[in-house]
Amino acid sequence: MTSTSVFVSGANGYIAQHVVKQLLAKGYSVVGSVRSEAKGEELKSLINNDKFSYEVVPSLTEKGAFDDAIKKHPEVTVFLHTASPVSFSIKDIENDLVKPAIEGTVNALSAIKNYGPQITRVVVTSSAVSILGFGPYFDSDKIYNEDDWNPITYEEGLTNPHFGYFSSKKFAELAANDFVAKENPKFNISFVQPVYVFGPQAYAVKDKANLNFSSEIVNRVVKLSKDDKIPEEAAEFIDVRDVARAHIIAFESDEAISKRLFLAAETYTLDSIADIINRRFPQSTVPKADLSKNAEILKTAHKIDNSRTRKILGFEFKTLEESVYDTVEQINNA
Ligand code: NAP
Questions:
Q1: Cα-to-centroid distance, 129 and ligand 1 (Å)
Q2: Contact 309, 234 (CB under 8 A)
Q3: How many angstroms is it from 14 CA to the middle of ligand 1?
Q4: Per-residue confidence at 3, pLDDT binned at 50, 70, 90?
Q5: Mean pLDDT value across the chain
Q6: How far is the CA of 81 from the centre of ligand 1 (A)?
Q7: Which of 94, 107, 165, 248 could be cross-linked to 65 through a Cys-Cys bond (beta carbons 3.0 to 4.6 Å apart)?
Q8: Hey, which family's this protein in (predicted)?
Q9: Ligand 1: residues within 6 Å at CB?
């Protein structure tokens, strides 16, 4: 057991709740930031552990956003920055999506440098979208790895919310690298870059009609009726429990310093998800999957080689079958 104290920004998020849960299970103390007292109290009662406390950081873009929270916690030696908008129904792409991602990252790093000299390890939750090419930049022949960068420009990011999200993650990651290069802070930094994240919620499901964005991909299949057509969609997935584990290894392991941990387990199609539900939950209303279409649909998925990441992490990723089963089991019981 350890006495190390870890700060987790956006602690009430889907991924962050798993990070907090695993940290507490390993004996770490956790200070989480949330946007309001009400969200903090709700999270505290879900977590129900004396080693968890929270601070309210209302805005990522306010200058000095994290200064007070860091000043109040001289015991914190690790900072995990997960907070960032994951929303595609916004109107103002730059102010609601891109700026909170970039400025939130810089504000967190500045607070750590100025007021948390005892903080030695920082992990930023970036994304596979800062590595992979999409739309005009998708290359079906390319094998993407930890060295690749999505070529999207800042201006292209302002043209639609999906591009806005891609650019928010890419430019936040670049801003973190710039900060480290210019400010030469005392901490070491690592990045966690998941593809679509599936898997159960860490605690209770609040509203099973509306899960977080990536879990809704599985939930959209769950909500189909027998006669519905299964949309032809393919991409890559990683289980949320593996994403949380990677955040912890990212600061525990010296091999992860300055690395991009590119998290992808398998490709999926909505038919593969439906097939798992058909087999494992025979009473469900999900239409019958047609796996013969998969080879064609999967041509739109990225090819990935994340062997360097897998070597640093040293554990096997959960399979799509396990992740979808656990997700649907939890939705059914909610
Ligand atoms: P989530 O459940 O929506 O959590 C996002 C967290 O960020 C929440 O705590 C949210 O607070 C906070 N946040 C969002 N916008 C904010 C803003 N403008 N100001 C302050 N806080 C804000 O999403 P998630 O899937 O767990 O994502 C967590 C991190 O993983 C993000 O950095 C995301 O980009 C990254 N990621 C996710 C996936 C995925 O498939 N889920 C894949 C790759 C990377 P509220 O609850 O108050 O809104």
A1: 14
A2: no
A3: 7
A4: confident
A5: 97
A6: 10
A7: 107
A8: Belongs to the NAD(P)-dependent epimerase/dehydratase family. Dihydroflavonol-4-reductase subfamily.
A9: 10, 12-16, 35, 39, 59-60, 82-86, 100, 125, 127, 169, 194, 196-197, 212, 214
Atom of ligand 1 nearest to the CA of 100: 18
How many angstroms separate the alpha carbon of residue 295 from the centre of ligand 1? 32
Which pLDDT value is given to residue 1?
54
Pocket test for ligand 1, best of 46, 86, 125, 242 (most atoms within 8 A of CB): 86
- Count the alpha carbons within 13 Å of 224 in the hemisphere toward its beta carbon: 22
How many angstroms from the chain centroid is the CA of residue 250? 14
Residue among 178, 72, 58 at smallest CA distance from 115: 72
Measured distance CA(32)–CA(73) in Å, rounded: 11
Whole-angstrom Cα distance, residue 4 to residue 86? 29
Q: What is the pLDDT of residues 113-129, one digit of tens each?
A: 999 999 999 999 999 99
The single-letter DSSP state of residue 298 is: G
CB 245 within 8 A of CB 315: yes
> What is the C-alpha separation between 316 and 322, in angstroms, rounded?
13
Token representation of residue 291: 């796996």
pLDDT for residue 35? 98
* Nearest one of 164, 161, 40 to 102, comparing CA atoms: 164
Domains, the chain, ordered by start: 5-198+237-264+303-317 (3.40.50.720)
The string of DSSP codes covering 57-87 is ---SSSTTTTHHHHHT-TTEEEEEE------
Report the C-alpha gap between 305 and 257 in whole angstroms: 20
Residues 6+ apart with CB under 8 A from 123: 78, 79, 80, 81, 189, 190, 191, 192, 247, 250, 251
Rounded to whole angstroms, the Cα distance separating 291 from 82 reads 35
